[in-house]
């Protein structure tokens, strides 16, 4: 019998006040996969990611992670279940050094692994090692994104949630960030749920992809299938394949 998905999102509806942001979202994230959700700005991508994290809670539907219903759990409890998020806009601690940011990420992990995890973070992102004593707020946008991902990894997640990791970054840095995501998945089997506007890079990476429009999933398939679809190319890839 095949294993159930690591993350199951079932008929989820989310509201901001009276405004409905998600309209019956259903999707699965299987262990060891990269699953990508693409869509235009305001389509509901980040809202879905935040709903998984319990902020806001789903008004209807169910979110099951690792066999456990987390739909109503508070955010701090969800984050203790080996789910880690690199949020949209990075949200690092600007007054803290790179090292201190990484220590904050490791707060929920076993301290015995700290040195090993720090070494791994610096191998993935050598620029962070060069800046380990520098305040987060003085880093470039690309370095801050690297720090946000490295901080999320310090929690030793089984599921990594990445919200718009390429937003506002130069194409070369975007390429580097996506290479790291691919390496984490291939070498460590890390399960990744990725929300992205950069459809080309995200779908190239994805085992499974979904398109969200106005809070509804309108298309699903493998990353390769979606990249080949004319309507996806027209809506999301024109001029976007750097």
TrEMBL record:
Q: Which SMART domains does UniProt cross-reference here?
A: AAA
Q: Name one GO biological process term.
A: L-amino acid transport
Q: Which CDD domains match?
A: ABC_TM1139_LivF_branched (cd03224)
Q: Does the keyword Cell inner membrane apply?
A: no
Q: Which InterPro entries match?
A: AAA+_ATPase (IPR003593), ABC_branched_ATPase_LivF/BraG (IPR030660), ABC_transporter-like_ATP-bd (IPR003439), ABC_transporter-like_CS (IPR017871), BCAA_Transport_ATP-bd_LivF (IPR052156), P-loop_NTPase (IPR027417)
Domain called ABC transporter: residue spans: 7-239
As one GO molecular function, the record gives:
ATP hydrolysis activity
Q: Keywords of this protein's UniProt record, alphabetized?
A: Amino-acid transport, ATP-binding, Nucleotide-binding, Transport
Q: Which domain of life is it from?
A: Bacteria
Q: Which family does it belong to?
A: Belongs to the ABC transporter superfamily.
Identify this protein by name.
ABC transporter ATP-binding protein
> In which organism is this protein found?
Hoeflea prorocentri
């Amino acid at each position: 019998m095949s294993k159930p998905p690591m993350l199951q999102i079932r008929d989820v509806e989310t509201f901001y006040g009276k405004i409905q942001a998600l309209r019956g979202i259903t999707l699965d994230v299987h262990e060891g996969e990269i699953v990508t959700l693409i869509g235009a700005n305001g389509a509901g991508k980040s809202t879905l990611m935040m709903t998984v994290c319990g902020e806001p809670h789903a008004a209807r539907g169910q979110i099951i992670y690792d066999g456990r219903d987390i739909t109503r759990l508070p955010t701090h409890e969800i984050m203790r279940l080996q789910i880690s998020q690199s949020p949209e806009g990075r949200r690092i601690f600007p007054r803290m050094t790179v090292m201190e940011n990484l220590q904050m990420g490791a707060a929920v992990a076993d301290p015995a692994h700290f040195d090993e995890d720090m070494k791994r973070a610096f191998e993935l992102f050598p620029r962070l090692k060069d800046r380990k004593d520098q305040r987060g707020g003085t880093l470039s946008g690309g370095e801050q994104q690297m720090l946000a991902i490295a901080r999320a990894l310090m929690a030793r997640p089984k599921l990594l949630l990445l919200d718009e990791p390429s937003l506002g970054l130069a194409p070369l840095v975007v390429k580097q960030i996506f290479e790291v995501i691919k390496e984490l998945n291939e070498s460590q089997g890390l399960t990744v749920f990725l929300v992205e506007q950069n459809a080309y890079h995200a779908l190239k990476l994805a085992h499974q992809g979904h398109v969200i429009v106005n809070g509804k999933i309108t298309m699903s398939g493998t990353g390769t299938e979606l990249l080949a679809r004319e309507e996806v190319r027209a809506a999301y890839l024109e001029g976007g394949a750097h």
